Amino acid sequence: MNSEERIFDEAYRVATLYYYQDLNTEQIAREMGFSRPKVSKLLSYARQHGIVDIKVYDTRTRLSPLETIICNRFALKRVHIVPVPSYAGESVWLERVARYTAKYLNQVLVGHQVLGIAWGTTISEISMHLIPKVLIGMKIVQLNGSANTALSDNRYAANILQGFADNYQASVQLFPVPSFFDYEDTKRALWRERSIQAILKQQQEADVLLYSVGAVHAGVPSRVYAGDYLEPEDLEELKREEVVGDISTVFYRADGSWADIPLNQRASGPPLHLFQSVDRALCVVAGRAKVQGLHAALQAGYMNELVVDEPTARELVKAYLPEHVTANGEVALF
User: Fold this and answer.
1) How far is CA 93 from CA 7, 16, 285, 306, 307, in A?
2) What is the pTM of this model?
3) Cα-flanking dihedrals φ and ψ of residue 280, to 5°?
4) Which H, E and C letters describe 76-117, residue by residue?
5) Per-residue model confidence as pLDDT tens digits over 224-259
6) Which domains does the chain have, with CATH numbers?
């Protein structure tokens, strides 16, 4: 990276922290190891070179080195690495990633699309930072049921999806079924109902899917593992099946396989091949505990666009892309 490219990259990072993450110049200087005057100069540079125009626009002609490594290795359409302080807790990382995603959605969503949303901790956080925008004809559909033995009214997921619907002035289709059925036969019977068939059809017709990767022991616990969704025997089954994560409450192994996992026969989430076929499958991830599940999902092609915090992105490369790691264990960005 030459000096001009480095200045451009630094200006973009500083502008993102200032305008997207709402940090002041003192906080940015401390986080990036710069002086406050340098931060101010980089903000001026960003405005002068078209990076910033009231809000942050990513006008870079190329991805950052770390983004490029991940994008090329997993054949993604786009990777967004969100700068966060590595010393902060993962709740801070999640908030930063959610703020970034909420603003990014306003750039990519347009009217008359169908947006499929898989509820969860990450998507809930995004819903809290949405920026109002009217999208005429937008339809939002819930991808997986959320009722469980303790909460049978779908309230948690409904609040998340209604937040998106209100923000975009969109219509919303809830999916009022359990996250996991007690019996496979019950699910098969319900899936034959015309009302459920209509929702499943909307899911299959989605233009954009918004979701995250679930992990059992995340720093900020995934909702499906932290709530009353899984029984102890279910967790034992996941351990036996060597599950590394889930998408929309459908579980998968390190090799991406999912169809023969017994619990998935009772899950209400869509088959994972849906995420391989949609035009924009936007996965949002924060936290190192999700690295194994993220890698498996990337390998299997369960996303074509990724938003991730920087420490997690670096951990992903260190753990699974050794050709990009130096002898002292650092990611080689060249």
Assistant:
1) 25, 14, 10, 15, 12
2) 0.81
3) -130, 105
4) CCEEEEECCCCCCCHHHHHHHHHHHHHHHHHHHCCCCCEEEE
5) 766 667 888 988 999 999 999 999 999 999 999 999
6) 1-59 (1.10.10.60), 63-324 (3.40.50.1360)
